[in-house]
């Protein structure tokens, strides 16, 4: 494993650790403080520091160490968590994230970024220690021992596996003063039973120099989870006396009443196992390959079933049964593999509180961010591509939506503005909502601005919804002064494009003076969709179920010709334009009389409802979406391709693209492909 | 079925590593698979050839130029099939079970070439490659990148890069051009 590789892994891990730290801090901010939360936070910061030390990120380690010092007092209860401390911890975590990002990108972090914070942490740790709680005094007194320390140290095999070397620890300890070492080799087995990777030897160190306890603990801080360590004052003849003094006498995090024989690290390990759900880091391309293979397997199984159905039913009943079981298993396998690709939206939502904190400070606004449904799972690719649009919407909400505290008070609202970010699964789609209780959209100003820019004719009368649509136009911004935060007018159109590229929709509701609400509706996954297989001539096409409103066989009297516009279908008082797929795609040999075929009515984002004319409906099935762009290119009206049960390729219709249409004069006829003899 | 070439006279054992492809500008000398369209022989860089398979029905692509015969499912990947004869401006191939498709890969793109048959593997030294004359060529320019005289006749080396560069503009232009002809 190369050094760069290790570095990359470290930064990846840090991203997760930061996420965990933010999650714990969010819990603490909500007043849910228990030992596990503080421990988890401590572990996250500690691990970041540990790796950072290995890579020589001095500034990072300094800050993390200060945070750890404070957290250590918090976790043993010497100091109680206050909202101010949570805020301080959040700022510290933000700074850690910045320092990490700088190290990762090889850029120099702004000087002094962490200096003030480091001091704040140390001050908080030192300041509150003695006067705030008298109970803190005994451990402080116990920490200063004037004789020296006896350390019993028994490494676990894990310590060696993590490439820690006891000799280095001894050398480190020697810096504090003279050390005598006694090795305990009593557990050493005979040579033939010796496992090279096990740990057998324990040591007792005696440090005969008065040294601060925390300095001694610091020597072992990177291995504390992987060993048994007892520290006691050298002079103490009866260690039992010391037990009530303080829980911190034992370095193990959860040590309560530590008899000398108890292995503290082991006591701590169940807590750890609970806190971190076991997970593996897998390259997405590996999962994609698996998805592909499983897709192939499902197709293959369908083919087998098709061939077997030709056989007489009583010829080999076991075969048919076996194939049906296979079908069920392969479908379950497919679902399971697809589920690997999903990820909770938490990973992107977790970045938002920081944005709100920083922006509201910058803008002089008081904003509370409420997050719900962060456990909602969605395709990994979708999650990753949500970050930018969401960041943009949130910036807009804070900059344009939420008013300053004074303005809010004048409008009879609470001084603190609220932004709500929520996710939920709703019938096969993920719906993400971002709402604020700010000033809402000033439609008069939007319209005036659009007229001024010539985006709307001066005499055009627009509905409220149409005015709201204007903000999605390229280069539209109503911010009176262009601020650094938002208002460059390169926003909402990009947001909409990004969401559409993910197969999603974005809609806006707003009430002037009361707030705005953006609703993003996204597909669960990009890799699979529920489709209706339709036949047009000799070709089969897939219509995404999510777009279908209904399908029907039209009556002749309901079809009306509109000159220059083709046919429309009268349906319950509305006229729906008909799009003959055979003409759009140039398929020969299809049904041309609308009343002899089937009309599939689909909903498009811009063109309203559209009736697709097809020959017949073949069936509904889940299809694996394959890229046709990778090896060919984009095709108007086609969003992708899939492989049907017989191994043939079928094109998946892109409904918005179909709605856009092409002039019929440029359509070409598909060359009929001769079938094999 | 895969790697089965009914009329291949040379041993067929190609395992080009993924991503391997010929140099886009200067064609490097080396081994070429020759395939036939009627009597003419064309050379395809062996490093770009992934496999050779029999012709199978394709799924038509709307608004595609006629030389795009559609797409097939190649073990889960959607691969377009080019009619090499039609691409070179000759009439469409009428495929039978005896026709073969040469699957090639250049860069990240994979495509299949419909040809009459695969005939041989030839080794070509750089000095053997002659430039393609500019005039009187029936093949659209830039699709060939060299001519190699052999004892039995001439082999025209196909520029796979230009062959597989069919972005939207090229497709539209080609579709327009063929619309004019018909």
TrEMBL record, chain A:
Query: What keywords does the record list, in alphabetical order?
Result: ATP-binding, Chemotaxis, Kinase, Nucleotide-binding, Phosphoprotein, Transferase, Two-component regulatory system
Gene3D superfamilies in the record: Histidine kinase CheA-like, homodimeric domain, Histidine kinase-like ATPase, C-terminal domain, HPT domain, SH3 Domains
Stored InterPro entries: Bact_Chemotaxis_CheA, CheA-like_dim, CheA-like_homodim_sf, CheW-like_dom_sf, CheW-lke_dom, HATPase_C_sf, HATPase_dom, His_kinase_dom
Q: HPt domain location, by residue? A: 1-103
User: What residues does the CheW-like domain cover?
Assistant: 528-664
EC number, UniProt record: 2.7.13.3
Domain called Histidine kinase: residue spans: 319-526
| Reactions listed under catalytic activity | ATP + protein L-histidine = ADP + protein N-phospho-L-histidine
- Compositionally biased residues, Low complexity: 264-273
Q: Give GO terms: molecular function aspect only.
A: protein histidine kinase activity
Q: Which CDD domains match?
A: CheA_reg, HATPase_CheA-like, HPT
Q: Where is this region: Disordered?
A: 245-273
The domain of life is Bacteria
Protein's job = Involved in the transmission of sensory signals from the chemoreceptors to the flagellar motors. CheA is autophosphorylated; it can transfer its phosphate group to either CheB or CheY.
Q: Which PANTHER family match?
A: CHEMOTAXIS PROTEIN CHEA (PTHR43395:SF10), SENSOR HISTIDINE KINASE CHEA (PTHR43395)
> Protein name, please?
Chemotaxis protein CheA
Species of provenance = Paeniroseomonas aquatica
Automatic annotation (TrEMBL), chain B:
Q: Which residues form the CheW-like domain?
A: 29-169
Annotated coiled-coil positions are: none
Spell out the PROSITE patterns in the cross-references: CHEW (PS50851)
Q: Which domain of life is it from?
A: Bacteria
InterPro entries of this UniProt entry?
CheW, CheW-like_dom_sf, CheW-lke_dom
Task: Please state what the protein is called.
Answer: Chemotaxis protein CheW
Q: Which organism is it from?
A: Paeniroseomonas aquatica
